[in-house]
Amino acid sequence: MSALVVVGAQWGDEGKGKVIDFLSQQADVVVRHQGGNNAGHTVVVNDQEFKLHLVPSGILYPNTWCVIANGVVIDPKVLLDELAYLQDRGVDIGRLRISSKAHVVMPYHARLDALNEERRGQQKIGTTLRGIGPAYMDKAARVGLRIGDLLHPEEFRDRLGDVLEEKNHVLTRAYGAQPFSFDQLYRTFVDYGSSLRPYVADTSLLINQAIDRGDKVLFEGAQGTMLDIDHGTYPFVTSSHPSSGGAAIGAGVGPTKIDRVVGVAKAYATRVGDGPFPTELQDALGEEIRERGHEYGTTTGRPRRVGWLDAVVLRYAVRINGLSGLALTRLDVLDGLDTLKIATAYRYQGHTLKEFPDTAWEFRDVEPLYETLAGWDSSIGSTRRREELPRQAQQYIERIESVVGVPVVLVSVGRERSHTIPLDDLF
Ligand code: IMP
């Protein structure tokens, strides 16, 4: 198996960082292909915690090459700070390559993100305010600036001049906000370009060559299927394609080159930001799970909304992504609960829905239909084999497999790399 795509099967924050870190030990190349520094994951290696937003966590392995591909939107300051942080901690960053086609998140994108959210008021999306939506808007509107542009100061000057005129017009006229200074932006971003130059490459070529010679290539999705701009809970979504198809476009590889897709799902569910969440627990139990699971965003620190596992969402994730298995994370967070629930279907206007609804207003009004299972009273953090898990935990996993329709291929029972029960050879 050469090319493996790992995606979030829920609303992001499924613990992909941990799973990807675990799989990276076998990977020759790890590729980030969508999103930007709205994502964030924490990886714990030998008690040392690494918080990363843009650089694939594969960088923590000494021989793994890491790629930030064309589908990512890059805030160069965030990336350079992250590279300095890694270097300070002794990590070799010479194995990073960045696509010249990746779009740049400019300061006016973050400003417009905040102004748009403010204007939406009650209807706000609850974005991470990192400028991700406005950067992808510019990409689609064909007025985006790309990493490659920063390496050509003369052309960059013309492009920035043109774009900034329009941005400043919107900022000052539509929002009454302050304009950005051309000279300052120009100088700063040309400097960023010089700092990033050693890493910039034709990453589609590199990735395809790696696949063709049989290297193990891991595509690391950010966010989750339910935040996909086409297939998620629109408009409460991000502006990229976290589902598996995004890997092909976002990295410049044909879909036929991808061998396998695995979805990461928490053993329960969380969501940050606004939007419908049928299995949400707005009670003391939800609060308890949030505290036990430290369910606060890596990027924004916002408390995550918590709920029961939703198998309707997971079956939808299987369909949209072509998942062949699930990596189930944070099972240990459920230790000690008397009972557990899984939503296996929804009730909508007196009907039972087994499939994820096609429209936003149906999804907004569904009521989950639950199955209740017994919990376990021991602590499972030190378990390394499926058979050693308490019987009730094994039954919970089996039930998930049966209602979702794909096998669980990995179980995570803690934050460390070692807190992992691999059930299948994924590569
Ligand atoms: P944006 O990506 O900042 O535009 O935010 C759009 C929506 O996606 C908001 O609900 C965010 O909370 C959510 N979101 C973006 N990135 C992540 C992530 O990495 N994990 C979880 N939610 C995210």
What does this protein look like?
The protein is an alpha/beta fold and 427 residues long. It has two domains: 3-91 and 202-422, Alpha-Beta Complex (Adenylosuccinate Synthetase, Chain A, domain 3), CATH 3.90.170; 103-198, Adenylosuccinate Synthetase, subunit A, domain 2 (Orthogonal Bundle). The chain is 33% helix and 20% strand. It is built from 13 helices and 20 strands. It has a ten-stranded mixed beta sheet, with helices on both faces. Strands 14, 16, 17 and 18 form a four-stranded mixed beta sheet that branches. The chain has a two-stranded antiparallel sheet with strand order 3-4. It is globular, with a radius of gyration of 22 Å. The chain starts with a strand and ends in a 5-residue tail after the last strand. Inosinic acid (IMP) binds next to helix 4. Inosinic acid (IMP) is lined by residues 11-13, 38-39, 125-128, 130, 132-133, 222-223, 227, 236, 238-239, 272-273.
Descriptive terms for the model:
single chain, 427 residues, alpha/beta, Adenylosuccinate Synthetase, Chain A, domain 3, Adenylosuccinate Synthetase, subunit A, domain 2, 13 helices, 33% helix, binds inosinic acid
N-end to C-end Cα span: 5 Å
**What structural class do the secondary elements suggest?**
alpha/beta
What value does the average pLDDT take? 96
CATH class of the largest domain: Alpha Beta
Indicate the low-confidence ranges by residue numbers.
none
Total strand count, please? 20
Number of helices: 13
CATH superfamily of the largest domain: Adenylosuccinate Synthetase, subunit A, domain 3
Please indicate the percent range of residues in DSSP E strands (runs of 2 or more).
15-25%
- CATH 2nd-level architecture of the largest domain: Alpha-Beta Complex
Domains, number: 2
Ligand identities? inosinic acid
- CATH-defined fold name of the largest domain: Adenylosuccinate Synthetase, Chain A, domain 3
Q: For the report, how would you describe the main beta sheet?
A: 10 strands, mixed
Strand order of the largest sheet: 9-7-5-2-10-1-11-15-19-20
